[in-house]
């Protein structure tokens, strides 16, 4: 995946999540499932997963130095960056707040 494709994805959607994971990262898979479960009730939030191990330059361009990392973009701007250990309830509340402001 190229940086241009990710930038287009971010610009095309009002709220989106860019999720950086790794090939052999158990935490990445577990957190991804929980995040997908949370956002399924928000139909206008778009989700993309990027394998940081296979896309090292892309990960570096977003300052990704550990995995997993979840980036929430609202109107093209990064509004939240969370790593391996984060509160899912806080995450849901943050998404809910932005979602209700925009839609």
CATH level 3 topology: Glutaredoxin
Query: What string, H for helix and E for strand, traces the elements in order?
Result: HEHEHEEH
* Spatial strand sequence of the major β-sheet: 2-1-3-4
* CATH architecture name: 3-Layer(aba) Sandwich
- How many discrete structural domains? 1
How many helices in DSSP terms?
A: 4
Poorly predicted tracts of residues: none
Name of the top-level CATH class? Alpha Beta
Q: For the report, how would you describe the main beta sheet?
A: 4 strands, mixed
Keywords: Redox-active center
Pfam family, one: Thioredoxin
Family: Belongs to the thioredoxin family.
Domain Thioredoxin: 8-81
Q: How would you describe what is shown here?
A:
The chain is α+β, with helices and mostly antiparallel strands. The N and C termini lie far apart (30 Å). The protein has a four-stranded mixed beta sheet with strand order 2-1-3-4, sandwiched between helices. The protein has a single domain, classed as Glutaredoxin (3-Layer(aba) Sandwich). The model has no long low-confidence stretch (mean pLDDT 96). It is built from four helices and four strands.
Quickly list its features:
103 residues; alpha+beta; Glutaredoxin; four-stranded mixed β-sheet; 4 helices; globular; Thioredoxin_domain; Thioredoxin family protein
Please summarize what this structure is.
The protein is α+β, with helices and mostly antiparallel strands. It is built from 4 helices and 4 strands, in the order αβαβαββα.
